[in-house]
Structures are given as C-alpha cells and as structure tokens.
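Session log. Operator J.P. requested a structure for one protein chain; no other inputs attached. Running the standard single-chain path with token output.
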Amino acid sequence: MKAIIFAGGTGTRLWPLSRKKSPKQFEKIAGDKSTLQLAVDRLSPDFALQDIYISTNIIYKDIIKKQLPQIPAANFFYEPEKKDVGPAIALIMGILSKVHPNEPVAILWTDHLVKRINIFRKILKVAGKFVRKHPNKIVFIAHKPRFPSVNLGYIHLGKKNGGGNGIEFFKFEGFKYRPDEKTANKFYNSGKYAWNLGYFVTTPHFIYDAFKRLVPNIYHNTERILAFYGKKNYEQELKKLYGKIENINFDNAILENLEKEDASVIVEDIGWSDVGAWEALKEALENHPYENVIRGKVYLEHVRDSLIYNYEDKKLIVGVDLDENIIVNTDDVLLIAKKTSVPKIKTLVESFEGTEHEKLT
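Structure written below.
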C-alpha cells in the first residue's frame, strides 16, 4: 500500500508563525515536530519509507528534504507553480498509474493532528485490504462530529455496508461543504453525517481514469507531461506544461461527480483536529474548553480560555486578566487578537501585499 501526503498549503490563518517561505506544515505547532513530520510518523511502521510520497511546491524543496531525510528523493513530487490540489493529484496518480495502477493508495494531508493513532492505522489497513479486492472503488475516511462545525465539510452516510476487524463501512450518499449554523446543527443531531477529512483510500488507476472521464482537459495535459517522466528533460517540460493545466479543486472536479455506488465510508473517532487556524489549534490541544494553551516562556495570572505562544527564548510574556485571547510572539511580529477575531487574520495578511509589511507575510 502507498500513501501520498500533500504539503503545499500556505496557512495564512496561522500567521505570524506560518509564512509564505515556511508555511504551517513545516512549523512546530504541537510538540517538537512539524505537522508534516507527524503525518509521516503516523504511518510508521505499517508503511515502508519507499511507499510514502510527498507532494509540495518546488519552493519548499530544501525545507522538505531537511525535515524528511529518510524519505527517498524519488518520492518527492514538486509542483513548479501554485495551483489547486486537482492538478497535483492528477499528476501523482498519473505517475503511479503507470507503475502501480491497482495498488491501494491513501491520500492524506499535513495540517491535521491525530490523537488516536492506533485506530487511524487500523482504518488504513482495513480500507487498503478492501481496495485491494475492489480496485475500482474508493473509501472515504470520515470522523464522528464532536460539535456542529460550520467550518468543515460533511459526508452524508447511508446504511451500513459491511466492514472488518471492528471497522464498519457505510454507503456513501454525498457531500455537503461548510453548512450554515442551522444546517450544521441538523446534521450533527441526525447522526447521519460525519466530518469530511479529505482522507481516502483508492487506486491510482481509479482516480486517473476518473480524470479521463470527468475532466479530460486535465487528463490530456497531464499525459503530455507524463510523456517526459523519467527523462532528463522532465523537470523542464513539467515547468513549461504544468501552468497550462486548468486550476480546479479536486473535490469539485472528481469526488462530487463520482457514482455513489463506487464509494464507501468509514466513520470513527481518531482524535482528529484541523489545525489550520489558531482557535482550531487551541481546541485540538486543550483538555477542557476554558483551559489555556501555552508554549514557551509564559506567565499568567487570572487568564482564561486563551492560547499564548512565545517563540522568543529571551523574552517572557506576562498576561493578567485576559479572556479568550490569541497571543503569538515571533522574532519579528507580535499578534494579539480575540479568539473570535481569528478569521480576520487571513484578510489582514492579504492586505499587507504591496505595503512595507509584505515581507512579513
């Protein structure tokens, strides 16, 4: 079984820690390893290093190799320019379909935390075993909702549809992306919807063939690139041709257009959290809702429900009488915001472009 970890996002909602030159997936936001390194660690020992692939942007080549020296160089796929994930998945699945067409492959992401790793590994094994027997199927890995989130997508669950080793399968009835508050509560209370993590297990042939059927322009442009794969001028041709590929979200291009009978869903509680923003990171790391989450040299008096991260060893952050705050101190930026104001950070950072503060983005 293979695994592809995508690590190309920019992560502006975790600014000022996450920057264009070093996005969140390369930073230590939970413990002493980056979320990229943690994503690789979660696959050990079930996956051999030669079966783990990393997809990222070429500008992160050096940092990726430094953080993952154990991964073979041939297993890194570099996008020559930033595009949505659709073209990136088409390229990798196109390459793997030439050499491992019916080998089960797991699609995973870097900006997540998973606490119940043993269950996560078990799910991958069960899904991989199923896909090996049914190479023209896809298994979505979903999560039991902890609350009615309006920031996550949902998978509509059908009836139970088999399983094994204590893991149940459900029929797939469709997606719903980021519902409003009323709909999210309805989903949560119904018990018929689960959070969509973007994780799935399938085969390269199944996905690449789906591109051929559903997005033929991406398929044919990818085929032009693959004609040079393994040749000396591959990187040159990739750089020249990749920019001509349509920029489209993978979910919109492929997943939303699959036949329902081609998919099954596994729903479990793997202790998953999306740490794409500071308030989400706090929710992932806290033991109860009003607990403070701190890192570095921090001293607090009468502070409640706050995240305070200090990345300067020579400076002490002191907080007194604070509630629901996000404070992040780096060597060149100090961010202070109410927890409820975190969604504004992305817009703020984008407004720095073309100004004297652009270098801080």
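Operator note: The CA atoms of residues 157 and 192 lie 5 Å apart.
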